[in-house]
Amino acid sequence: MKHKVLVVGGGGRCHAIVDALSRSPKVGKIYCAPGNAGIAAQAECVPLKETQTEALRDFAKENDIDLTVVGPEVALAAGIADVFKAAGLRIFGPDKAAATIESSKDFAKRLMDKYNVPTAAFRTFEDYAGAVEYVRNGKFPVVLKYDGLAAGKGVVIPETFAEAEDVLKDMLLDDKFGKGKVVVEEFLTGPEFSFMCFVDGKDVYPMAISQDHKRAYEGDKGPNTGGMGAYSPVPLISDEDVEYSLEKIMKPVAAGMVAEGCPFKGVLYGGLMKTPDGVKVIEFNCRFGDPETEVVLPRLESDIYDIFSAVSDNTPMPEIKWSDDVTIGFVMASKGYPGSYDKGFEIDGIEEAEALGNVRIYHMGTAMKDGRIVTSGGRVLMVVGSGPDLKAAREKALKAVSLIRCDNLFWRNDIGWRCGVS
Ligand code: AMP
Ligand code: GLY
């Protein structure tokens, strides 16, 4: 009998998860809550928000869902895994206690400190005056991180003291992101990469690595975003770097979570940087990355349903295989993102772009209006090309991007620039 699966979330990451599940011969019907206009082609969208944990549990019960897979951190931080498990339902994603590794940067930093995991030096502040004094006497640029979920926008890297003072005022006096602490971090340099691993509490199973591009504009300029594009694999990062990251970072953190009484089960995402002093942690997330998932999961050759099941049931993990194909994706975002932007612009050309072959278009923020696909979010589409090498994959993806017509989108053409392809 085929299994019924519910995917919680509605962005490009969930579209890629739905796409991977639809390749499993074991999966029958897929539901997605709330989903989006693109996901609707592969799953039945359910009009429930990702944070309506109890309503989602009731839906899963009433519809005999065999397994629920959670995309976004807000649902995990709201305790969706705890709610489902209490009802005896199978769910892929960490419980609320384990999700703290993402929802509190202070928790993550203290965990790394305790278990000797390499990361930037830091201090945490609740009071404005203390933070200002510390920053005044430190080096610049300095990294200021709001200690809570801020959709990738809670990190600011001021170059001067005056700028830092303004940011600290926003974060600690005016509570612009909400009431919370600020982590002040040493500024590190080097190429970044995203290392996502399936973790079943005790054991850690690495995925293929990828590289995101966090800044809004070409040349890595402009404000930080949730991510403007990604590619996989990352030739700048050697197999030895990945091995080191697995042994010295991901495994000790998983073991540390067990020792702290909050074992992690789900996807542990390491945002890592290869600094001149070795690989160090920039951040941890408690879920699949977005847009990294959109370039990593298309390379997965194993059955993702089996992997999700092994983690949620604590059963042996099957062998996880990756294709040699290279993938690269360009985020098409609403003009104004990551600041304010308008919605509701019609999008045309998606079918023509997909017809090129070796192209996958994941919807990040789209909706259906009067039978037409329209923009409905900051990040709108992730256009992924694949091929035997980065150059071929990039040409394919950019050809697809050129076929998409919409009046209100912008994108970065230089995704992959560190590999010399742009
Ligand atoms: P985060 O949300 O913690 O991943 O931070 C967003 C981005 O800010 C990262 O992808 C880095 O590019 C940058 N960043 C964060 N922490 C540091 C650091 N300690 N040194 C240099 N850059 C950083
Ligand atoms: N792309 C970064 C993240 O998912 O947090």
What does the model show?
The protein is α+β, with helices and mostly antiparallel strands. It has four domains: 3-92, Rossmann fold (3-Layer(aba) Sandwich), CATH 3.40.50; 121-186, ATP-grasp fold, A domain (Dna Ligase, domain 1); 192-313, D-amino Acid Aminotransferase, Chain A, domain 1; 326-419, Phosphoribosylglycinamide synthetase, C-terminal domain (Glycinamide Ribonucleotide Synthetase, Chain A, domain 4, Alpha-Beta Complex), CATH 3.90.600.10. Helices cover 30% and strands 27% of the residues. It is built from 13 helices and 23 strands. It has helices at 12-22, 53-62, 73-77, 80-86, 96-103, 105-114, 128-136, 161-173, 239-259, 292-296, 304-313, 350-354, 390-403, and strands at 3-9, 27-34, 44-45, 67-70, 91-92, 122-125, 143-146, 155-156, 182-185, 192-201, 204-206, 211-212, 215-217, 221-224, 229-232, 264-275, 278-285, 326-334, 359-363, 366-369, 372-375, 379-387, 409-410. The strands form six sheets. Strands 12, 15, 18, 19, 22 and 23 form a six-stranded antiparallel β-sheet that branches. Strands 3-2-1-4-5 form a five-stranded parallel β-sheet, sandwiched between helices. Strand 13 (215-217) and strand 14 form a beta hairpin. Helix 5 crosses helix 6 (105-114) and helix 7 (128-136) packs antiparallel against helix 8 (161-173). The longest helix is centred in the middle third of the chain and has 21 residues, at 239-259. 49% of the residues are buried. The mean pLDDT is 96. Glycine (GLY) is lined by residues 152, 212, 226-227, 285, 289-290, 292.
